[in-house]
Write a structure and sequence with these properties.
By secondary structure, the protein is α/β, with parallel strands linked by helices. It has helices spanning 2-23, 40-56, 71-78, 93-101, 136-145, 160-172, 184-192, 207-211, 259-274, 276-284, 297-316; strands at 29-33, 60-64, 86-91, 113-128, 151-154, 177-180, 198-202, 215-220, 246-253. The longest helix is centred in the N-terminal third of the chain and has 22 residues, at 2-23. The chain binds aspartic acid.
Length: 318
């Protein structure tokens, strides 16, 4: 009898496992965004999540869980049950630089399941609209002369905005007051209202405000201008060629999420990036979308390993 019950139980486990992989998803999926609403990570997650919902037949619900440069939300997501119902939108900070900056980090970016790359995002140096400079050269001169008086926003230690502005500040030899936010969405609001003097951030939430004249862009830190902002010179044109940096956002699932569920999520992400409306929305905001070969889970897993090694080498040697 005992053996019979054990056999039934084992069959039940097998059945429910097979059913879970085949019927997934049977309920909504939470995508944790580790920064506040209105920032680049949130915007990218909402655009792709919206289309992924249609492919998967279940809602991808965005949940903003903020704090500690994005590591609070990613820790929550990475330690959730690996069943495909909690996934995360990570970025160069949370899945690249964080291990070097947070020794007690509760997740390993190279051990979570890589779903797929969502977008690369050039970095811009932006300032409040009445910042007293006409171009990058004047911005640098003013920032150097007034480093003790000006302030700069970022989204917490290890956030893209923090790392990339720390890089800029060290190249300029300045150390202005840094003001932390729960994401660069709220930081942008304070830049627009003039409470913040400047910040460095991913292009996607800046384009509309630059075009509307609500903030100023002094340079894009890429080799070429962005088609979304053809009037903004590169840092090379502006006389600061050593300031070159590009960030990225990608989707991950907790370690141990079944491979076929990861494949379903990768497929849904790929369809979102191939969809004309989603594509054009992201391209219009300056995002650079991955090619087919860069869209695979394997490509992202290899890329994240290299990113973690790169940031370890860059940040731990300082
Ligand atoms: N771009 C931000 C960062 O600095 C975060 C955000 O997406 O709000 O990492």
């Amino acid at each position: 009898m005992k053996r019979f019950i054990a056999a039934i139980a084992a069959a039940g486990v097998l059945y429910s496992f097979a059913a879970s992989a085949q019927t997934y998803p049977v309920k909504s999926i939470v995508m944790i965004v580790p920064f506040a609403a209105g920032g680049p990570t949130d915007i990218i997650a909402r655009f792709v999540g919206d289309h992924m919902s249609r492919t998967l037949g279940q809602q991808v619900v965005i949940e903003n869980v903020v704090g500690a440069g994005g590591t609070t939300g990613i820790t929550r997501a990475a330690t959730s049950p690996p069943d495909g119902y909690t996934i995360m939108m990570g970025h160069m900070g949370t899945h690249g630089a964080a291990p070097a900056l947070y020794p007690g980090l509760k997740y390993d970016p190279t051990a979570v399941e890589a779903v797929g790359m969502a977008a690369s995002t050039p970095i811009l140096i932006v300032a409040k609209k009445d910042f007293p400079a006409r171009d990058l050269k004047e911005f640098i001169a003013y920032a150097k002369a007034n480093a003790g008086k000006i302030n700069q926003a970022h989204a917490g230690i290890g956030a893209v905005s923090q790392i990339t502005c720390a890089l800029l500040n060290s190249q300029l030899g300045i150390n202005p007051t840094a003001v932390p936010y729960s994401g660069t969405g709220p930081a942008l609001n304070d830049l627009m209202s003039g409470q913040i003097d400047y910040m460095c951030d991913q292009i996607v939430n800046l384009v509309e405000q630059i075009k509307a004249g609500n903030i100023r862009a002094f340079g894009i830190a890429s080799p070429a201008r962005s088609p979304a902002l053809p009037d903004v010179p590169t840092t090379i044109e502006g006389g600061l060629p050593e300031y070159q940096v590009q960030a990225w956002n990608a989707v991950f699932a907790p370690h141990g999420t079944p491979k076929d569920i990861v494949a379903r999520l990768n497929d849904a992400l790929g369809k979102a990036l191939a969809d004309d409306v989603t594509r054009n929305r992201l391209l219009g905001l300056g995002a650079v979308l991955p090619g087919k070969a860069e869209q695979t889970s394997e490509a992202l897993a290899a890329f994240v390993k290299a990113e973690v090694a790169r940031w370890n080498a860059a940040l731990l040697k300082r």
